[in-house]
Amino acid sequence: MKKYFLLLPLLALLNCSGNTEQWAITSPDGMITGQILMDSEGQLSYSLHHQGQGRQAEIIRPSPLGIIREDQEFIRLKLVGSMETGPLGENYTMATGKRKDLSTRYNELTLEFENEYGYRLDMVFRAYDEGFAFKYVFPGTSPDTLTVLRELTAFAMPDGNAWLQPYDSITAYSPAYERNYEGPLPVGTPAPGEEGWCFPALFEVNGYWALLTESNLQHNFYGSHLKQTGDPSTYAVVPPEEEEAFGYGHAVAVSTLPWDMPWRVVITGVHAGEILESNLVTHLAKPSILEDDSWVRPGRASWGWWSGYLAERSTDTPEKLRDFIDLAQEMQWEYSLVDAGWNTRRGLDIKELAAYAKERNVKLLLWYNSGGPLNRVNAGPRDRMYDRDIRREEMRWMQELGISGVKIDFFSSDKQDVIRLYLDILEDAADFELTVNFHGATIPRGWHRTYPHLVSLESVKGSEGYIYHGDFEQYGPVHTSILPFTRNVIGPMDYTPVALSTSNVPHRTSFSYEVALAVAFESGIQHFADHARVFRGLPEGVKTLLSTVPAAWDDTRYLSGYPGQDLVMARRKGEHWFLAGINPEDKPKTLEVDFGFLEPGRSYEATFITDGADNTRFQTTNKTITAESREQVEVLPVGGFSARLVPASD
């Protein structure tokens, strides 16, 4: 017989008036408490509270829970068992990301229910020191395929501010999470389209911060997003749109039993920096499938496509590709990307190009169209990644040629069939030791822990905004200053920074702002966007920073800032620190840097790259910095700075 036990105060079962039942689970540090309520009709709801700074506040108002299968509804329930464990924890290491060595602490509560017909549903709740998560589980075993139509899950937010990204309208290229983040918006602001809002969604409510997202999405479910209900401040979890991917697949989830569904996640903190630094999404993900991930090498890449797309309609000629390989060698970057159309480029022999790159100690990455029925984009090579047999043969060819990784584009849907394709690609790529970068793609959902060779995903309006989106000149700066608090919190982001020249849409950001994004944005493959001649013409101090900035970090620290206003942050690799400061607003500012995060008693030689006389010029300054140092950095309107700190003994 299964035994159930309670360890107060982590779990409290209270018999309330009206035959309601209530449970609570609290984080190990006692600051975060999730409350779960079952009313007299057997309907579940939850709320979330945070306490700190001598007070307690509501982060999530009472919000519905429940799930509807095609064969059964799990709305009116009765409790048949409960189990609490904790505190629990684990230590693990990430191949990429904002922090290499990670440690978790959490308490877990499982509530076991039956519906009125005796069918089982378990709900698992976890409270971490940095947030709260829950998931639905259908236990037992059955070979029958069951279908989930939708959840009742929602997040009812108190009054406050929100930073949100609209979910894409359905096109041949979307949804791809490539719209501007907007904010601050009043909580409850209607979405601009009927499709709703994306994960992750950031809120500032009752003096605290919360980021809503999901984690550990597997083959057996779809990717969700948010829509407002009759109460506009309530954001419901919804399936993909039926029209995505030209109607291929269905906007439902199917599986046999047991069925373990994705975590619904609330990252929360007293200040915005706790959101920026959080790794809760990877804490909740399955451990790595790789016994040995030493072959996964994060790095920087030269990239010729952005700098010539409009002028020469994708200029990846053999001559240009060799020039960008030479650039990677000169800048000490590990990779060079061969983008779309290489299979039909006149005079281009990939085998010869791979040999050319190998002679220069540069690794090649190849672009592919996801193909199949997902899109109707002709750019090639296509239809080599959709079918498993064809895909594995192509990957075998790449491995034999010495190709290091793939960039796969145009997925355009979060339906379960497409989620399966993502994960099937990752599993096959592991067999051939290929890194993977998904474009035109969904957001990270913890996959970069489970599959460490998933080094990046686009799922962002990045520097391509300067090619395709006329509004990026106006809205790009605020958008980029929100991303470190939203999209980049949940995983690597292939924004492709350092776009200094004008492609189609001018930018108001200063050159120093654009360089700072190479530090502010985390991606296991960091593609640099501009012309080879632009990088070669940079001042030596700027070139040194771009040749040494890592693509994976040992530590990340928020120093100051507010989304949409400004940001100062620091990242560490080994004993070297890198700083980024950005000011998206149309006024000059003084950004203050407190170096108290440095090792006490040690001196660092710092090279600051700041705005020059105008927004197309740099100023380089060398200083000696210690943990006691305080610096004030003057930045232009829509300006920024970066810095590299090396221990004085180096």
Question: What is this structure, in a nutshell?
Answer:
With 650 residues, this protein is an alpha+beta fold.
Give an overview of the whole structure:
52% of the residues are buried. Strands 6, 7, 8, 9, 10, 11, 13, 14, 15, 16, 19 and 20 form a twelve-stranded antiparallel β-sheet that branches. Strands 26-25-24-23-22-21-27 form a seven-stranded parallel β-sheet. The protein is globular and about 75 Å long. The protein starts with 13 loop residues before the first strand and ends with a strand. The chain folds into two domains: 14-283, Beta-galactosidase, Chain A, domain 5, CATH 2.70.98.10; 460-650, Aldolase class I (TIM Barrel, Alpha-Beta Barrel). It contains 13 helices and 35 strands. Helices cover 17% and strands 37% of the residues. α6 (388-401) packs parallel to α7. A hairpin with a 3-residue loop joins β6 and β7 (73-74). It has 650 residues and is of the alpha+beta class.
